[in-house]
Design brief:
By secondary structure, the protein is of the alpha+beta class. The protein contains four helices and six strands; from the N terminus they run αββββαββαα. Helix content is 57%, strand content 16%.
Length: 184
């Protein structure tokens, strides 16, 4: 049963790590190649991460470029960036897609805070889903007489403590990211 609890902890940590990865893509004023990582391009009938369609580079502080490997995919990449909800306005320049990073105004900062909140909520939901799976597993183990009622209670408390700890980590990461976004 200890292994299952460790597995639950590992899965919850995975949700936390995914959130940190999402936060890395939220820009705070400077161009960063990780900003475009969540973008997926609809190409050849399948969804592909943008880094599998071209090379992302940061030629200057307020500009990203995507050098698209396949000339026929340039407009699909431009469309994917425009529709990614990042507030970016890409321009096609031959086989490159130039993405100027606009100055963050107050309105855009508030939008980014909302996006950060949405990412955090997705992470909380993922942690709660792992908790539910863990609790279901404990109920089944008790029903199948693998563990006693007392053990079920003890392990349930342990799973709840893990959940609380990971949710607290998510909330702290969100507060930190919101503060970073609001810095001028």
């Amino acid at each position: 049963m200890k292994e299952q609890i460790k597995e639950i902890d590992r899965r919850m940590k995975g949700a936390n790590d995914a959130l940190k990865h999402e936060f890395a893509g939220l820009r705070t004023g400077r161009a960063s190649a990780s900003l475009l990582e969540p973008v997926v391009v609809d190409l050849y009938g399948s969804m592909m991460p943008i880094n599998q369609v071209g090379t992302i580079s940061v030629p200057e502080a307020r500009m990203l470029t995507v050098q698209v490997w396949d000339r026929s995919a340039v407009s699909a990449v431009e469309k994917a960036i425009r529709n990614a909800g990042l507030g970016l306005n890409p321009m096609i320049d031959g086989q490159n897609v130039r993405v100027p990073i606009p100055e963050l105004n107050e309105e855009r900062r508030k939008e980014l805070q909302k996006v950060a909140g949405k990412y955090a909520e997705q992470a909380r939901v993922a942690v709660r889903n792992v908790r539910r799976d863990g609790m279901d597993m404990l109920k089944k183990a008790e029903k199948d007489k693998v563990i006693s009622e007392d053990e079920h209670k003890k392990y349930s408390d342990e799973v709840q403590q893990l959940t609380d700890r990971h949710i607290k980590d998510i909330d702290q990461a969100l507060a930190q990211k919101e503060q970073e976004i609001m810095q001028v």
